[in-house]
Structure formats: structure tokens, C-alpha cells
């Protein structure tokens, strides 16, 4: 059974930082691409970061410099570090997995599995 379990969400003041973690099991993590996707209240899902099995990372332009994704293939974890958080970053953050070489980070239907999400709330 595939499991993606996110943790690390919470309430933070604007300008602060948070680290989200996702523990994965039930599939070959080291051969999968991993992403973080968020959904703010009343808005569509938004891809925020992706990482391939070799550690190469990808971000939408709006996230570059504030968000950092990395993975540990020995522990089957993927982490999202967020800094300089803004109230607009308030959302449920999801960890998701897709095929190893899939370049379609923004296409939600390309993801095979999703976690249950973790809430991030940034107060002004």
C-alpha cells in the first residue's frame, strides 16, 4: 500500500519559515519523482516544487528563492523548506509522486499518489 504522510505544517507569522516533510512507503521511492503541491482556500491546486530521483529540482518562477525541496532516498523522505512566508502561502500542502522522468509537474492528473496534506497558515 502506498503511503505519503506529510508533517510539519502549522501556524507561522509572515516572514517566518517552516519545514514540511513527507514520509513515503509502498513504492520504489528512489525511482520516483516527487512534488509538493498546495491548495489555498477557494483556489485551484498549485505546484510549488519538484525533485527527480537524481536530486535535480524544479520550481515555478514564483517560488524560486523562497522554497527548497530535497530528498533522502535512504530514508524515503522528501522535504520542503519554506522561508519568507507570506499570508498568500496559506494553504494545504500535499506531497505527491509521479513517474521517474515525468516532466509534467503542473498536471495534477500525472501524479499517481497523494498524501493527505498538511495545513500551513501564515498570519500577517
Shape: globular
- List unreliable stretches of 5+ residues: none
| Portion of residues within helices | under 10%
The number of helical runs is 0
Distance between the termini: 40 Å
Supply the helix-strand structural class. Answer: mainly beta
> Average pLDDT value?
96
How many strands in all?
11
Bin the strand percentage.
over 45%
Sheet having the most strands: 7 strands, mixed
Topology as H/E string?
Answer: EEEEEEEEEEE
Radius of gyration: 13 Å
Describe the fold and architecture.
The protein has 124 residues and is mainly β. It is 0% helix and 49% strand. Strand 4 and strand 5 (45-51) form a beta hairpin. It is globular. The termini are far apart.
Descriptive tags:
globular; 7-stranded mixed β-sheet; 124 residues; 4-stranded antiparallel β-sheet; mainly beta
Amino acid at each position: 500500500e502506498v503511503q505519503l504522510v506529510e508533517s510539519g505544517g502549522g501556524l507561522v507569522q509572515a516572514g517566518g519559515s517552516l519545514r514540511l516533510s513527507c514520509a513515503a512507503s509502498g513504492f520504489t521511492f528512489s525511482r520516483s519523482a516527487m512534488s509538493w503541491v498546495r491548495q489555498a482556500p477557494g483556489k485551484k491546486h498549485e505546484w510549488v516544487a519538484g525533485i527527480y530521483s537524481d536530486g535535480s529540482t524544479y520550481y515555478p518562477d514564483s517560488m524560486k528563492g523562497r522554497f527548497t525541496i530535497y530528498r533522502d532516498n535512504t530514508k524515503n523522505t522528501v522535504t520542503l523548506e519554506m522561508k519568507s512566508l507570506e499570508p498568500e502561502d496559506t494553504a494545504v500542502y500535499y506531497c505527491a509522486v509521479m513517474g521517474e522522468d515525468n516532466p509534467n509537474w503542473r498536471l495534477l492528473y500525472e501524479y499517481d499518489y497523494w498524501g493527505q496534506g498538511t495545513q500551513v497558515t501564515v498570519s500577517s
